[in-house]
Design brief:
With 289 residues, the protein is of the alpha/beta class. It has a ten-stranded mixed β-sheet, sandwiched between helices. The radius of gyration is 22 Å and the shape is elongated. About 6% of the residues have low confidence.
Length: 289
């Protein structure tokens, strides 16, 4: 496995690096990546262009030196129990740098923090993580807090089309220690456009629940053949809220979802549901492609 660890010096990005060391399987190569995004300076009226240019170059040099020190620190941490560790410092917008590096390095997994440095940068880095998840060519682990243990995973799946990519990823044995997987699917509660007293509504609901239960139990059985301890559960309600409430109640160490390609209409990723889970979940989130 080739892991790309994107860091910016924030607490969350350090948590992301530690998650690689503590909880992910031994990697063939780990690439520590830092993006230097030099801000554009607006020249004040009457300012000397030469002076402002020197000032801009000074800022860029300072940011690069700080980035190199950060990469040295992260590489030292990653070398404690990982494969070959390399460092990359690139100039540009963080999301663009991460996505380009993932493509170029043929990464099997991207790991990054969910927030950046400071109030404004937190908002910007939050949007970076969401953009990377949406466009990444491989699975992405977004770490929002220390991953102190990785024993229980909540896997939210929408339908049979999620099974193959998730099983393919889990078949790589990406975790350092055995984990239990709680496979859940959400059946949205909607108000049917049917006449009042329509006698078949209960039967239709029961059939939907039965099919959902068969699906997650079948998925859990397939994961068991891969060596995981897994059980299936059916949730009812609005998908984002149901997933977040169940995560609050069952307290998993990690939430796993499957990414959807942009043309697909998905209630699980490309919209408010994924945004809610990425930014409101109490634990890290792993998006599988």
């Amino acid at each position: 496995m080739r892991i790309l660890v994107a860091v910016d010096g924030s607490e969350q990005s350090l948590h992301a690096a530690r998650a690689v060391v503590d909880h992910l399987a031994h990697a063939e190569q780990v690439i520590a990546l830092h993006a230097v995004d030099v801000p554009r300076l607006a020249y004040p009226m009457g300012g000397e262009p030469a002076i402002m240019e020197d000032f801009s170059l000074s800022i860029a040099q300072s940011m690069q030196e700080e980035g190199e020190r950060l990469l040295d620190r992260i590489a030292s941490l990653l070398r404690t129990d990982s494969g070959t560790v390399s460092k990359r410092l690139e100039k540009g917008a963080p999301a663009d740098v991460i996505l380009t590096a993932a493509e170029k390095e043929k990464a099997d997994l991207i790991v990054l923090g969910s927030r950046g440095l400071g109030t404004v940068k937190e908002l910007l880095w939050g949007s970076v993580s969401h953009r990377v998840v949406t466009h990444a060519p491989c699975p992405t682990l977004v770490v929002n807090r220390p991953l102190r243990s990785l024993r229980r995973i909540m896997l939210a799946v929408q339908g049979p089309e999620d099974a193959a990519p998730i099983k393919k990823f889990l078949a790589t044995k990406p975790f350092r220690k055995p984990v239990e997987i709680m496979v859940v699917t959400v059946l949205p509660v909607t108000q049917p456009l049917l006449p009042a007293g329509f006698s078949k509504i209960d039967a239709l609901t029961e059939r939907t629940v039965r099919e959902g239960r068969a699906f997650v139990e079948g998925m859990a059985s397939d994961l068991s053949t891969l060596g995981f301890s897994a059980k299936g559960y059916v949730l009812m309600g609005a998908p984002a809220l149901a997933i977040l409430q169940e995560a609050e109640a069952s307290n998993p160490d990690l939430i796993m979802l499957r990414a959807r390609s942009r043309p697909e209409v998905s209630r699980f990723l490309l919209g408010s549901v994924s945004h809610a889970i990425l930014h409101r979940a109490h634990c890290p989130t792993l998006i599988v492609r």
